[in-house]
Design a protein that fits this description.
With about 70 residues, this protein is of the alpha+beta class. It has one domain. The longest helix is centred in the last third of the chain and has 13 residues. About 5% of the residues are buried.
Amino acid sequence: MLEGEYHIVVSAWIRNSEGMIFVQKRHTLKPHPNLWKCPGGSILERESSFDGIIREVEEEIGINLRGA
């Protein structure tokens, strides 16, 4: 990246009623394979961090947080 550029990454910490946090295992073909992480990723240009994490959660684990 060039000086003055930035990259926004979002992460969702999803907790159940018992206080347990949802984690997922990274894909074997991605950087840092098989490590545990919370769902998330990079937001798109002109996308808010809120909209980005909603999209990332649905893409990664199939949960629609907007409640279709």
